[in-house]
Amino acid sequence: MSNYNWTRRDFIKSIGATTAGITLSSCAISGDRSATGLTQEALAIQPVVKPQDLEKPDLIVGYVPVNDCAPFAIAWKKGFFRKYGLNVKLNREASWATSRDGLIFGRLDASPVVSGAVTNARIGAEGARQAPLCAAMTIHRHGNAMTMNKAMWDFGLRPWFEYQQQYGDGALEAFGKDFRGYFAKQSSENKVWAVVLSSAIYEYFVRYVSAAAGVDPLKEFRIIIVPPPQMVTNVRIGAMQAYMVAEPWNTRAITGNEGIGFTFAQGKEVWLGHPDRLLGVMESFINNYPQTYRSLVKAMIEACQYCSQPENRQEVAELITDRSFTGARPRNKDAPITKLTGPGIMGAYNYGGFDGKDRTIQAADTTIFYDIPDNLSKQPAEHSTFLWRSRSLWLMTQAARWGQIPEFPQNAEQLAARAWRTDLYREIAAEMGIESPKDDYKVESPDVFIDKKGFDPSDPVGYLNSFAIRANAPTRFFMS
After folding, report:
1. CB 81 within 8 Å of CB 87
2. What pLDDT is stored for residue 478 in this prediction?
3. Which DSSP letter does residue 348 get?
């Protein structure tokens, strides 16, 4: 039976059996295997904050089985939670929706959330639950990618950097021609791109790239929501043709691993320096437990600093292969244990392909946890855990661009101030002896975006209206 001719019954049976059998077994994803207890390293830590001095020392903190659970795993293993008086139970979440909803419905005290979820919850965007979510720090930047299936490769699509090498300034036009050409030959059920959550920066990136190439994502293909561990299986059975997700689920797809696709582009090639995950809490948590919140942010900053050090990255990549975290270990027992998690953490990133060519590129900015590599421009005292409120405005422009909200909010700056708590971050970081940028907003230069279109937060509406392809764009017509 062809992968592209499954019946609905076949598909449901496959999701139930194949996902359970392959994804849950080989990747060790289940609801009851979260890391528990204290390691010897954690027990050796002398707390600098007494638990009795905190309003709520016992916390339940979520995480999702992707590479960016690394700071949570390190904070647990190395005792950074314990250092700041916290007794944290880590709770593995099935998806980014449960990670977000766990906060909103009170099951979790804190959890990583996708960029966009915080402000979209504030404004009640389509696909986002309305709730007063807050974040004061970024967990990491980059660390994600777009995967396309083998059929797209066979049609002629290639990694974005090869379009740049071959076509230079005409790369977007060339990619758009190939991209539209592929989908034009597909039936409607074979025009599907998956992302992890509506309001995720991944959804905006998928739409942004296609629109920049002249392909209207509202007309040419559909975007669906799929949890990260189910991405590979769904491409294998033909339920979708491409996806965007955090590592290691792109690396897992390439030849030499699952062999079902190749990496088209890393997120950093769409927007260099973009924020990925934020440490989310409800506003009431900050108000009711201010000292506890400070301890939590300090522990996570230290964990991000640890993950950022080059000498620690092998350890980090190994730790998150544990079944308590991603469970992403190679099936070949002779392969390095970090074969799947290592490329995103250590930076030797392989785009894959089906022609035998080695497309491994070494880069210091594959995932940024704290220290910002020299190839990225940065403001004085900037480090990656610092939140720029101007970036929450960019996310709001995309929510408006794609019709998730009817228009750009008139009170956008007030929403950003209440949701992205840069003010709190500065205070907490200062208590740790860490300097932070003095401003909340910065201009994103044209050279950091794939289409060379910069973002000035002083004119978000003008920026939004500058895009020809968008929801509710004016329709041009001519009268004879």
Report:
1. yes
2. 38
3. E
